[in-house]
Amino acid sequence: MLESNSHNGFHPAIEVRGVKKVFRERKRKRWLKYAIKEEWAVNGVSFDVASGETYGLLGPNGSGKSTLIRILSTLLIPDAGEVRLLGHKLPEEELFVRWKIGRVSVDAAFYKRLSARENLLYSAYLYGLDPGPAEKRAFQILDRLGIESRKYSDPLEEMSRGMQQKISIARALMINPPMLLLDEPTTGLDPKSRRDVQKFIEELREEEGTTILLTTHDMAEAERLCARIGFIAKGKIVAEGTAEDLRQQAGAVTFEDAFIKLTGENLAEDEVKEEG
After folding, report:
1. Would the pLDDT of 241 be above 80?
2. Maximum Cα–Cα distance for the chain, whole Å?
3. Helix %, strand %, coil % for the chain, to 5?
4. Residue 223 to residue 212: CA distance in whole angstroms
5. Pairing between β-strand 54-58 and β-strand 80-85 as defined by DSSP bridges
6. How far apart are CA 128 and CA 134, in angstroms?
7. Greater confidence, 266 or 22?
8. Is the peptide bond before 60 cis (omega within 30 degrees of 0)?
9. How many whole angstroms separate alpha carbon 251 and alpha carbon 246?
10. Which one has a higher pLDDT value, 162 or 41?
11. Contact in structure between 69 and 103 (CB atoms under 8 Å)
12. Nearest Cα to 146, choosing from 160, 158, 132?
């Protein structure tokens, strides 16, 4: 049974207890003989995120960050453990959850030959929203993210990576969700686009009280945006707290040094490996 930590003024919007997820791959060993290879992407993860809090998950590639986001966004079912989002248990109440969350990922999918406006109106249609107010809200978000109105009619395939990511954020916020799951939302963006997105995330939490779970490779981004941060490595959360807490736990001067000491991983080297 999943226990709530709602005492002492802490009201979790996200409750994760002992979550595990394994991926299996059948590999051929010898003639007509196969072996099943198991890889635990998430291995006993537990954490809470308070309502209105921005919580960061920071870890190297393959650490389990994106798998956790997919579980929380109802795209994957855990093999063990319990999850509640906004009081709803997953996967049993996933239909309720889908109407209350927005998700932005580094690999957001669009109809690339359609314009930004057409993509957003199609999303409004899927959610059963009135096109007029939905379009107005989307344009307000895009304007705050620094996209000029003359770009609204351009096909997505002609837009930069940064522009497409801003469209993805607008799409996720069409229903004004109380919870936002951000999976590396600024990866690959130019410095100005990164600042635009980070500023908008800060304003969203302050103005709307949105609960935000953010995965990122960016140390400075995590420090700037997140009230608390969990370091995840090899499918497990190995440390958790504020940026200052984590520096003290590691006896480190910089946040990057704290990450390396507490996880045994070098994030910069890991990013180089991914690009290679």
Report:
1. yes
2. 62
3. 40, 30, 30
4. 14
5. unpaired
6. 10
7. 22
8. no
9. 8
10. 41
11. yes
12. 160
**pLDDT computed for residue 5 by the predictor:** 46
Q: Are 244 and 259 in contact (CB under 8 A)?
A: no
Task: Kindly state the DSSP code that residue 64 receives in the 8-state scheme.
Answer: S
Q: What is the pLDDT of residues 8-44, one digit of tens each?
A: 445 799 999 999 999 987 777 666 667 777 888 999 9
Helix H segments across the chain? 65-72, 94-98, 116-126, 131-144, 161-172, 191-208, 219-225, 243-250, 255-263, 267-275
Contacts of 35 (CB under 8 A, 6+ apart): 26, 27, 29
- List the beta bridge partners of residue 187: none
Provide the 3-class DSSP secondary structure of residue 189.
coil
Say how many residues make up the chain.
276
Pull the structure tokens for residue 5: 């930590």
Question: Which secondary-structure segment (H or E) carries 104?
Answer: strand 101-105
Tokens read off for 75: 């795209």
Give the integer Cα–Cα distance in Å for 190 and 255.
23
Token pair for residue 273?
């490996």
Tokens of 77: 């079912």
C-alpha span between 176 and 155 (Å, rounded): 25
pLDDT tens, residue by residue, 103-124: 998 777 788 888 888 888 888 8
Mean pLDDT confidence for 75-96: 94
